[in-house]
Design goal:
It is built from nine helices and five strands; from the N terminus they run ααβααββββααααα. By secondary structure, the chain is mostly helical. The radius of gyration is 16 Å and the shape is globular.
Length: 165
């Protein structure tokens, strides 16, 4: 189960942050029901999914719940459960007050490494999204930790100082 494998990769400090920030989990059987939850009563939801504009999951900062779909086909690509979950777990780790991504040191690391590596993506829109993109690299199971250290040394250093690495 993907949520368990992400938590298995977390340091004790990261798990403590997660426990403090996450009140519960809501699982949805498919993208349609998940996005109908995000956009209740919106008749355009099936069209948005077809256009690749659906949400794959969310960390609800108001309720503290992680709201997640299973593996999804999205804009013609299949995303494994770990890919989606790791991004939203990143938001949950950061928490409702963005306690990591609001730090100046993270801002510097994000601009120097994440913004440079992922131009034109969601990751450049804010330090918060950059933090979750990095969580994606760390927990998503697609990149080796050694490669992350080589390519994102400032981000790794920040995570290490926060006892997250
Ligand atoms: Zn996000």
């Amino acid at each position: 189960m993907a949520a368990v494998s992400i938590i298995d990769q977390m340091t004790p400090a990261a798990v403590q942050h997660l426990n403090r920030n996450v009140s519960g989990y809501r699982f949805f059987p498919d993208l349609l029901s998940l996005n109908q939850h995000f956009m209740p009563g919106n008749p355009a939801v099936p069209t948005l999914i077809t256009l690749g504009l659906a949400h794959l999951g969310a960390y609800n900062e108001t309720t503290g719940e992680l709201e997640l779909d299973g593996p999804s086909r999205f804009a013609g690509k299949t995303f494994g459960i770990a890919y989606t979950y790791s991004h939203e777990f990143g938001h949950a780790l950061d928490g409702p007050s963005h306690s990591f991504s609001n730090q100046v040191d993270w801002d510097v690391a994000w601009r120097a490494e994440i913004v440079r590596a992922f131009p034109g993506t969601n990751a450049v829109t804010s330090a918060q999204e950059g933090f979750s993109r990095f969580a994606n690299l760390v927990y998503g199971g697609e990149v080796a930790r050694a490669d992350v250290e080589t390519n994102f040394p400032l981000c790794v250093e920040f995570w290490r100082r926060q006892s997250l690495w």
